[in-house]
Each structure stands twice: as structure tokens, then as C-alpha cells.
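input
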Amino acid sequence: MTATTRMTGGDAMVRSLIAHGIDTVFGLPGVQLDHLFNALHDHSNAIRVLNARHEQGTAYMAFGWAQSTGKVGAYAVVPGPGILNTTGALSTAYGCGAKVLALTGQIPSDAIGRGYGMLHEIPDQLGILERLTKFAAHIDHPSHVPGIMADAFRQLHTGRPRPAAIEVPMDVLAERAMVGDPQVPEVYSPVEPDPEQIDAAAKILGNAENPMIFVGGGAYDAAESIRELAQMLQAPVVSYQNGRGVVDERTPLGFTIMPGSEQWIRCDAALAIGCRMQPERQMWGIDDGVRLVHVDIDPTEIPRISKPEVGIVADAARSAEALITALGRHNRTRADRSDEYTALKAKHWAHLEEAMSPQMGFLKALRDALPEDGLFVDEFTQVGYIARVGFPIYAPRTMITPGYQGTLGYGYATALGVQAAHPDKAVLSVSGDGGFMFTANEIATAVHHGLPVVAVVFADGAYGNVLRMQKELHDGRVLASTFTNPDFVKFAESFGADGRRAETPDQLRTAVRESFAARRPTVIEVPVGEFPDPWAVIRPTRMRPIKKWSDR
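output
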């Protein structure tokens, strides 16, 4: 029988967080959360609070923590405008499949839904959260905390990872009641693949002359098995944003979409693992010449764009392991294709360096300066776009992106969460001046908590992508796409961080290396002019016909 103890709802929340492995909460206190933060103070030996300067910062930090570790990143903010300020980060976590837990307060229980105009009251807060999460719940009594918290963590750890949210009224956090012990965390068994589907998939892949593997964020924890599978098939492993580093991109089989697009012309069987294959199926094109096998934990994802010949709803790692075994029976004899793939990658790399020389020079300097085990957070910026194909990634979860959400301004705060999760590793944030200013106030957070992120800011005084599109589409007329910047060096120094300026790739390489050695929060401003259009190089182009939707 579960023991019960008299405690506040806030104390019950914190005890459950600790029981489920949370040792860090990113948060901003406020009146509706007073009793939660008081309980966090009582348990400060087991759980730390990293306070940010804006609610969006707390959620992006939790996202960075979750994406770089594969574990749950938790944040706590007040209701109403507080939780609404985090919805950009929640949508990013939803799109990227990140295990983010949002904790928020509520107005007093007896006032919810009555429209009294109480502090931080909004209509249907829970309904808003339900649309941005996998699981959202309301706690109406302290005794319900252990069960609902266990439900939230069960949802975070099973099926397709996506955020969860819990709201607790301020009176419930304050109320003292008899509460059971936190529920013991479950051991979550991965979903095993169907043996018949695995055998069918192995026959398709094993008989193919030019198989390819495509990976996304759902493949991170299957990296070792996917590497072995790729070797057996001599199949390049292609990733676009999420999924980078599942195979070391310094090796012949680690592909970005640039060499991948050329190989796609020859592909006769494709294995998608934990990804949507959206660029390939919707932009490169797919026809009857490609036999498709799709592995995903989410059954709704498999037929979303086109129906595969074999769809396997199962854990990525278990599926890859099973395919390795089955290919032992069905794989054709294959010659080593390392030289062929190395030459193909080199051809595309040379084209990239020629067409995108300013961006590539800076990216090479950044890659040289970032230690092999360092982590890279890219932004939606002219250099960041090219990083998708021009910044080699060596290991899973070492490149953090916002995925299809394209969340401008997410990068710096996200990098702080990455740094908090990896205190002994180098973390590099790359932003444009437009995006950086979205969360530049969090330099104060970096200094306050000693988070030595090195932030490189490419400053051209414009939202570069928007400015280019306005010029091209509207006869040179531009509106609201340029702005005035601070002196970023002095700006950083005003917070107590280090500020530096670099104007060439060589200067940037030196500045980043010295900043990592100093282990202090640093902003490096790189003044730049207008860059060449990155989309002319990295935009996926049509390689094969596309079936009509009715035929897919």
C-alpha cells in the first residue's frame, strides 16, 4: 500500500519531478507558482532551478536540454501570458519530437472559466496546451499529483516523443493534503517490429542494387544499428536537419541532401527511419522505381505523404537490429562503395565551396574551432542555412535545429539549455543579428548561471532572407526587413559577458578557439554584407516524377 504524507500540492509536484529523474527546471516564478517554487527551494539539494529573463527563454532552454540529451527538459512559468510566451518553443518541440515538460499555474480553481478578469486569466488555457502537446492535464487536488505526473512521463517516454503540459491552480499548489508517494517510474519496453514485415523489408532492401537510408530525429537512439545496417547494404545515410550525425559525415556513408539528391536518381529501394522524407518525396519526387520501406513509431506518419510498400510501426533501434539479422538471409553480395561515395561527396563539396564561398569559409572556420565532441546550435540565418549541408556533423544530438517550424530566434536560448545539460562540453550558437535579438536578453542568464556558450552573430543589419525575397519579387521594394543594431561587443560586455569582433574566417577561427578556452559566456560579432542566395544551392530539386496523390 502506498504511504501517504501531508504536504502541499507544490511539494507533491517537486517530489514527483525528482522521482522521475528531473534534476533541473528552467523557470520564472510568479504569484500563481509561489508554492511550487517554495517547494523547489526545499528540495534544492536534488533539483536546481535556472531562472531566465523571459518565459520563452525557459522553454527554449528546456528544448535544448531535451534535444541534446534525449531526456526530459522541464520548465515552469506562470499561466496566461507566461505560458503563451512559451508557445513558440512548444511548437518547435512538437515538430522536432522533443521531450519537453511544461509546468504552469492557474488562477484559483473556483474562478476558472468565469471570466472575472483575474491576473493572468485567459480562456481555455488547457485547450490551448492540448493543441501544442501530446498530453495536457489539469490537477485539481494535491492527491492527484503522483498519478497525473506519472501519466505525463509515460506519454513523454512512449510512442512518438512530443511535449507534455500540466496546469495546477494556485490554490491546489498551496493546499496541504494527504498525498501518496510518487509513482515509481516505469520501465518502458520498446515496441518490437513485426517479424513478417521485417522479412519483407529485408527482401526489398537486400535485392536492391542502390538502396538508400533516410533518417530523422526518430533515428538518433538507433545510430549504432543504423551504421551497421548501412555497411551491410553499402547504402548512404541521408539526413537534412534533424537526424544529422546518425552516421559520421566524415565517413563515406554519411550524406547530406546534396550528394543524396544525385544518388536518388539511381535509388531503387529506400529505407526511412524516424523521418518524414518530406524533401525527398515531395520535392525530389518518388515513382514506381523506388520501393519504399518506412519505419516509424507513429503509425499516422507512415502513410502521410505516400504509402510505402512496407510500413513498420515499431522502435527504430529494434527495427534496425531485426533488419540486420534478416539481411543475413536476404542480402546480395555487395562490393565496397567507399571510393564511389567519397568522390560523389567531394564533387558536391567543391561546388558548395565555389558557389557559397563567404558562408563556407566561415563554416569551415567554425568547424575547425569546435571540438570534436562539441555541440552546434544553428539558426535560420544565411550561414545557418548552408550549415545544413556545409557543416559536417560527427555524432547524434550534436547539431540542434528547429526542424520544420523554422523558429527564428530560438537559437541562443536553446544553446543555453544545451550548455546546462553538457557543462563540460563546448557549445556553439550561430545566429544572424535578426534572430539573435529575439533572446539576446538571455546573455544575462548565461552570466548569472555561468553558462559559457559562445554565440557567433553574423550582422548584416537585415532579415537577410526576407530582404532578398522582397528585392526579387517586388522590383527592389523593401519594407520592414532592415534594422539598426547595437554594438554587439559592448552589448555583451554590458551584461558581464565577453564581447569580440571578427571580420574574416581566420579571425573567427581564432576568436572561437580562444573563447572556448576562456570558458566564459561570449558573443562574437561578425560584420558581413549581403550573402549569395543559399537556396539556389540547397533547395531540393525535382529528380524523379511525382505520383498523383490518388496514386500514392
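quick obs: The two ends are 54 Å apart (CA to CA).
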